User: Fold Cupin domain-containing protein from Litorisediminicola beolgyonensis.
Amino acid sequence: MNDMSSEPQFDVGLRLKELRTNFGLSQRQLADQAQVPHGLISMIETNKSSPSVASLRKILGGLGISLSEFFEPENPVTDQVFFTPAETRDLTSLLAGEGGGIESRLSLRQVGDARRHNLQVLHETYDPGADTGEGMLEHFGSEGGIVVSGEVEITVDGQTRVLKAGDSYLFSSSLPHRFRNRSDRPAVVISACTPPYL
Assistant:
């Protein structure tokens, strides 16, 4: 993970509250639209809870925006074709609160402007114990990937398998799914999703 000590801390709660207010929604209305418990919005907005990737994505779905738009609302559109590692968009390190929760053990780095190309390509790193969250992810589209190193446990529609380096997956994103690293070493996955989800 990146060392966040030199960067200003991103206030997830404040950003969510600003967006919710801009959309003219109460906490209860947003919770209803996102189909999450009512108290979760309040806990996140007051920074009493650091959301998992799955729960934040579900909440943002209630607003119709992506993680990339949540963290980088002013990101300029470019015709850039090639990207160095430093030029990928870090979609998750800003979720890592001072408590160093599960989110701090998961890194999702996006290549370029996913929305513009209707394709999201990610470099995913799952440290030991990393998990996309207890709630299963479900969204419109298709996704696939290849495990580059380590191993990751993937559950899709009740089927669970541990994939190792060289193994791959491809499924309809509308099926409930979850990613976890239950091993004692990091796992790296290169994945793609269309249309973009995060």
Remarks:
- Residues 113 and 150 are 28 Å apart (CA to CA).
- The radius of gyration is 16 Å.
